[in-house]
C-alpha cells in the first residue's frame, strides 16, 4: 500500500514539475515578445526622430511621438480585429495576449501569429468593417477628416500644428496598405517642425 502511495506521490510531483516548466516557458516567451515589441518601437521612434537621438527627441518632441499613437486609435477596433482575426485563423486569445498600447497594429498581429500576408488581410478587413475602406479602397477623405481634429487637439504650438496639418496633404496619400507610412510621415513632419 505504501509503495502505491509513493508512486502516486512521485507521479503527482512529476506532473507538477512539468506544469511549472510549461508556465516558466510561457513566461519566457511572453517576455521575449514584449522585449521584441519594445525594440521595434524604439527602432521606429529612433528612425522618426533622426537626426535627433531618441532621448533628445523625447525631450523636445514627445507630443509628436504621442501623436503617432493617437493617430492610429480611430483606425482600429478590438471587436473588428477579433472578428477579422478569426476569419484568417488568428484566435481571440492570441490577439488578447499580443495586445499592447505600446505596440503598433503590425506588431500585435505579428505577435499573435499572423504572417505579413495575413496581417495585411486582417488590416484590410478591419478598415473595411469600421467604414474607412470599401472593396480594398481606402476612403482618403474620411481618413483626413478623422485625423485633422486629432492633430489640432494634440499639437498645440501654432507653427508646429500648421506644419503637421499641412502634412495631411503633403505626405504621400495613403492606400489601404500604406496607412502606417502615412501616419509616420505626419508624425515625422511634426517632429521636424518643433
- Mean pLDDT, all residues: 84
Shape: elongated
Distance between the amino and carboxyl termini: 80 Å
Number of helices: 9
> How would a textbook summarize the main sheet?
2 strands, antiparallel
Helix content: over 70%
Q: In sequence order, what are the helices and strands, one letter per element?
A: HHHHHHEEHHH
- How many domain modules? 1
Roughly what fraction of the amino acids lie in strands? Answer: under 5%
Question: What are the SSEs and their pairings?
Answer:
Layout lengths: L1 H48 L4 H17 L7 H10 L4 H7 L6 H7 L4 H14 L3 E2 L2 E2 L1 H15 L3 H13 L8 H14 L2
Antiparallel strand pairs: 1-2
Structure characteristics:
single chain; 194 residues; mainly alpha; two-stranded antiparallel sheet; 9 helices; 75% helix; elongated
Walkthrough of the structure:
The protein has one domain (2-192). 75% of the residues lie in helices and 2% in strands. It is built from nine helices and two strands, in the order H-H-H-H-H-H-E-E-H-H-H. It has helices at 2-49, 54-70, 78-87, 92-98, 105-111, 116-129, 140-154, 158-170, 179-192; strands spanning 133-134, 137-138. The protein has a two-stranded antiparallel sheet. A hairpin with a 2-residue loop joins strand 1 (133-134) and strand 2. Helix 2 packs across helix 9 and helix 7 (140-154) packs antiparallel against helix 8.
Q: Could you provide a short overview of the structure?
A:
The protein is built from 9 helices and 2 strands. The chain is an all-alpha fold and about 190 residues long.
Amino acid at each position: 500500500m505504501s509503495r502505491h502511495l509513493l508512486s502516486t506521490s512521485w507521479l503527482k510531483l512529476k506532473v507538477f514539475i512539468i506544469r511549472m516548466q510549461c508556465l516558466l516557458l510561457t513566461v519566457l516567451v511572453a517576455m521575449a515578445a514584449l522585449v521584441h515589441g519594445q525594440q521595434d518601437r524604439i527602432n521606429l521612434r529612433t528612425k522618426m526622430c533622426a537626426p535627433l537621438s531618441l532621448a533628445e527627441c523625447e525631450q523636445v518632441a514627445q507630443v509628436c511621438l504621442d501623436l503617432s499613437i493617437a493617430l492610429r486609435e480611430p483606425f482600429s477596433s478590438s471587436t473588428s480585429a477579433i472578428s477579422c482575426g478569426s476569419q484568417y485563423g488568428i484566435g481571440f486569445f492570441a490577439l488578447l495576449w499580443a495586445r499592447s498600447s505600446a505596440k503598433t497594429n503590425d506588431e500585435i498581429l505579428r505577435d499573435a501569429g499572423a504572417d505579413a500576408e495575413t496581417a495585411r488581410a486582417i488590416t484590410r478587413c478591419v478598415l473595411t468593417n469600421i467604414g474607412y475602406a470599401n472593396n480594398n479602397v481606402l476612403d482618403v477623405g474620411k481618413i483626413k477628416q478623422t485625423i485633422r481634429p486629432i492633430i489640432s487637439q494634440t499639437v498645440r504650438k501654432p507653427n508646429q500644428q500648421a506644419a503637421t496639418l499641412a502634412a495631411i496633404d503633403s505626405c504621400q496619400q495613403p492606400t489601404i496598405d500604406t496607412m502606417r507610412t502615412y501616419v509616420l510621415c505626419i508624425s515625422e513632419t511634426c517632429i521636424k517642425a518643433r
